[in-house]
## 1
Amino acid sequence: MTDGALPRMRGLILTGIVVAVTAAVVLFGLNAYAAHVSARDTAPPVAQADLATVRADPHIVFRSTASGADHGRVALVPLTDPDGPRAITGATCDRVYAAAGQATCLRTERGVVTTFQGSLLDASWNEVASWPLAGLPSRTRMSSDGSLIATTSFVTGHSYAGTGFSTRTEVRTTAGRDYGSIEDFTLLVDGTEYDAVDRNMWGVTFTGGDGFYATAASAGRTWLVRGDLEERTLSAVRENAECPSISPDGERVAYKKSRGDGEWAIAVLDLATGRERMLGEARSVDDQPEWLDDDTVLYGLPRADEAGVTDVWAIDLAPGAEPRVLIPQAWSPSVVR
């Protein structure tokens, strides 16, 4: 190697190091900026609120889907300010529903063996009872007085859109009585017992006392069914209705109605007249509705451009009403009046 070659080689090496370091700094800066933008875009939209203050008045309980440490945590917002500051609890759930100072929480326990669990939470969001679920958490509801809990889980499959799924829906009291699976109840369709082996039941909503509505399915058909816990019966009321929710005044039931090809609309049935009306939501809603009040229905929809992020939407029953986001970055709402 000549006397001039060594300095030139050292210069090339030094230049390469400088270029590499510069590139790394630029790349780090771009990644940091991207992370900052992502965090900014997916962070909770408003500051957090005091939990006791929010809970003291009517409020909405939901699962937070905001990115970060609060993802999956149960949160609350005032009923008068649903897109305002949210109070975060210490509970983490896949599905949650609150009533009468208690809440039911369904969650996935990941480990060497993944298991699924249902829990009853007290007013301080502490677990006071728990039980195993048969599969992936899907739906849960409580009666308005907080005495009854319904849970639905997927035993096989993970969507109501296909035919290869099986569900298990159970009802229990907060006092400890277990009614078991409602699939063991007698199903009546047009007044005749229907005992096909492929029956599935899901999506309970309680009406008071021993009564409830739910979904029954068999051979590609679904029915809105009226149930009685003590009689252990289910009676078909209307075909093509899934995941019902009773209105606060008990006069109407909202549910999702199949459009075909795995797409669902939202419909509302007047129980006195039998009149069904379709609401003005053009997108497919695969959720069990909740009532904000007697004239407004809530439901969750995923964001197309942000995996894992969902919003709670609201739509009025009035003709021509347009859907609107009620709670951003939220899922599984329940209104505590």
Note: The first strand starts at residue 59 and ends at 64.
## 2
Amino acid sequence: MQEIGTVKRYLPWMIGVVSFIVYLTTMNPTVSFIDTGELAAVAATLGIPHPTGYPLFTILGRLVTMIPIPVEPILALNIFGGLVTAASVALFYQLAVTFSTSSLFFPLTSRKKGAQENVVIGTSVAGAFTLGFSTTFWAQSVAIEVYSLHLLFLLIVLIAILKGVEETKVAASAMSSYLLLFAFFLGLSFTNHMTTLLVLPACLFFYFRNFGFGKESLRRLGALVPFFSLGLSLYLF
């Protein structure tokens, strides 16, 4: 039983490693299509690309090109894209488990908790690999682009708000630290890609659906604004 528990604990890491190894087999060794050349050049020189500027991607890309490994900068950036995409597969597994075991949606009964957990884990693993090896998702792993990082941050944002709302509501907490992380990473996600805006209505609906429009709910939401602004401030670059 202890071995099973250990496997469950390290499953996200195992999923990420397997995905990354598979992605490496189709990795583009050089410049690819569309914006990859521009984005790679901007990362290597710490420049500014076309609007909306992508400051987070640019800074992280620059750090990647500074790592002392014996490969061309473009290959290092492509590997980084594959690594981030693989991490997104692992996080999708975590999101599926978090959603499926949340007391806000599907509370587990104590009598069948063990069996239900195994079903959740099995289907979450299957779902993660199905998404990770789908054509559109896999395509983000083969060459450097802003979308691989976008996937990662959207998943972080969704996990954080799920955990934050549940912890605040169920534990009657004044403010879960996960909500603070949600606000901060939401701001950071906007500095990578503006289509983050598309997930915002769902997040707000989920928040108000659980907390209502009362004074305490609005006060708590207002307290998240500085953390969101801190993440968004990367645009000062």
Note: The mean pLDDT is 90.
## 3
Amino acid sequence: KDTSVRWRDAASCCVVLASGGYPGSYQTGYPIEGLTQAAALDNVYVFHAGTRVQEERLVTSGGRVLGVTARAQTLAQAVALSYQGAGCIRFQDAHMRTDIGKKNL
């Protein structure tokens, strides 16, 4: 099947929200909050990795819990927007690197 690809003249950045202790031992089952606020930001996309629904609530279920990706005109803007989106999301023992994209700025 033919697939077409469209390139955009933009930059993107993805910040992973991980469970505290990852990649070693970590706990799961913590409620996740703030997804609606993060997804409401223009050009911010939240990708689920280690999540599940438990008793009608979204909870953590893995080491790499969510990927918060942003698209913007420049890398600096994409990095800032991705961290803004990640900052909306909360769960117990959440951890994220704070140097993503900084090397190339």
Note: The longest strand covers residues 11-19.
